[in-house]
C-alpha cells in the first residue's frame, strides 16, 4: 500500500506548487475572458435577430455563382448561429412562456430547414428554403412587438410595435 501513496501525492504536490507559483488562473478569470468574446454578428435582442434572418437568407439564396465558397459558408454559419441564439434572446425578453415556446419551436424549424439546405448541393436548395421558411419567419416577426416591450431605447421596436403602444393608437370604442 505504501507504493501507491507517492503516486497520489504527486498530482497534489504539483497542484500546490502551481498555486504557490501563480502558474494558473482562477476559473472566474477564465470565464470572464470567455464572456467577453461575443461574435460581431450576435444580435442584441430577439427583434434584432429576427430582422437579420430574411436579408441573410436572401444573400445566401441569391449569391452569384462566382461567389467564394468560403464566404458562402461563413454566411450560412452566421445565419445558423443567429437562428440558434433566438430562443436565448427570446428568453431574455418579456415574452410570456407560451410565446417563448413558440419562438423556440419556430427557431428549431428554421435550423432544421437550414441544415437540410446546407447539405444540398444546388443553389436551388437555398431558394426553395426561402419559400418554405417564409411563414416560419413571419411567425417570429409577429412575436417581435411583445418581445420589444421592455427594450425601450433599443433598436428592437418594430414600427407596428411602437405605433401599437403609443397613446394615439388607443381608440375609444363606441
Strand content of the residues, in percent?
under 5%
Structural class: mainly alpha
- Overall helicity: 55-70%
SSE succession: HHHHHHH
Average pLDDT = 77
Please identify, by name, the CATH architecture of the domain at 46-153. Up-down Bundle
Q: Uncertain segments of ≥5 residues (pLDDT<50)?
A: 153-174
**End-to-end C-alpha gap:** 92 Å
CATH class of the domain at 46-153: Mainly Alpha
Report the biggest beta sheet as strand number plus sense, adding barrel if it closes.
Answer: none
Gyration radius, to the nearest Å? 24 Å
Number of helices: 7
Question: According to CATH, what is the topology of the domain at 46-153?
Answer: Four Helix Bundle (Hemerythrin (Met), subunit A)
Given the C-alpha coordinates, what overall shape results?
A: extended
How many β-strand stretches? 0
List the main descriptive attributes of the protein structure presented here.
174 residues, mainly alpha, Four Helix Bundle (Hemerythrin (Met), subunit A), 7 helices, disordered C terminus
Amino acid at each position: 500500500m505504501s507504493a501507491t501513496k507517492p503516486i497520489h501525492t504527486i498530482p497534489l504536490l504539483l497542484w500546490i506548487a502551481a498555486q504557490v507559483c501563480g502558474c494558473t488562473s482562477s476559473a472566474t478569470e477564465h470565464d470572464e475572458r470567455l464572456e467577453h468574446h461575443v461574435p460581431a454578428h450576435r444580435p442584441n435582442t430577439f427583434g434584432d435577430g429576427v430582422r437579420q434572418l430574411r436579408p441573410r437568407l436572401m444573400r445566401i439564396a441569391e449569391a452569384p455563382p462566382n461567389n467564394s465558397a468560403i464566404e458562402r459558408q461563413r454566411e450560412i454559419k452566421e445565419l445558423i448561429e443567429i437562428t440558434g441564439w433566438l430562443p436565448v434572446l427570446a428568453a431574455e425578453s418579456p415574452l410570456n412562456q407560451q410565446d417563448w415556446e413558440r419562438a423556440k419551436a419556430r427557431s428549431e424549424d428554421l435550423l432544421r430547414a437550414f441544415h437540410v439546405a446546407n447539405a444540398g448541393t444546388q443553389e436551388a436548395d437555398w431558394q426553395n428554403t426561402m419559400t418554405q421558411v417564409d411563414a416560419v419567419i413571419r411567425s417570429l416577426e409577429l412575436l417581435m412587438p411583445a418581445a420589444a416591450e421592455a427594450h425601450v431605447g433599443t433598436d428592437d421596436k418594430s414600427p407596428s410595435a411602437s405605433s401599437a403602444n403609443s397613446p394615439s393608437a388607443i381608440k375609444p370604442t363606441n
